[in-house]
From TrEMBL:
GO terms for molecular function: DNA-binding transcription factor activity. InterPro entries: HTH-type_Bedaq_tolerance, HTH_MarR-typ, WH-like_DNA-bd_sf, WH_DNA-bd_sf. Coiled coil: none annotated. Residues 1-139 form the HTH marR-type domain. This is MarR family transcriptional regulator. Pfam families: MarR_2.
């Protein structure tokens, strides 16, 4: 990052995390799905079939926003919609085999980049610090209590 860095540690950390995630996102596979589309596919992979409102809540976006995402994913053949037996007004969204493959390819590519970067650019001590920081960031992101 160029320019003057803030003396506020929280601002510095946020900027550093954003810089890292921009670089990680740049490693996406050629399928050109957006980060939000990939994240939605990930929720469907982990949670199984769900309604658009459930997916919107997991994504922390508006129903209108998730509706656009779902439509694009359906057009790409990565998800399907089917009748919800519990609620005729809503459909269940499911991951297709094609969607599962795209998600897997994307994850493998990013994981390979990260593993290579950790090996080439970090000492063993730095890797350990990053693994600890990763657990802390997960806890902060999920709202889990400190143990």
């Amino acid at each position: 990052m160029t320019g003057t860095r803030s003396n506020d540690p929280a601002i510095q950390l946020r900027e550093d995390i954003a810089t890292f995630f921009r670089r990680l996102r740049a490693q996406r596979a050629e399928h050109m799905l957006t980060p939000s589309q990939l994240q939605a596919l990930g929720h469907l992979e982990r949670g199984g079939p769900m309604t658009a409102s459930t997916l919107a809540a997991l994504e922390q976006v508006t129903p209108q926003s998730i509706s656009r995402t779902v439509a694009l994913l359906e057009d790409a053949g990565t998800i399907t919609r089917q009748a919800n037996p519990a609620d005729a007004r809503a459909s269940l969204i499911s991951l297709t085999d094609h969607g599962r493959r795209m998600l897997s390819t994307d994850r493998e590519r990013r994981t390979r980049w990260l593993a290579d970067a950790l090996e080439a650019d970090c000492t063993e001590a730095e890797r350990e610090v990053l693994f600890i920081a990763g657990r802390i960031l997960r806890r902060l992101g999920t709202g889990e209590p400190r143990t």
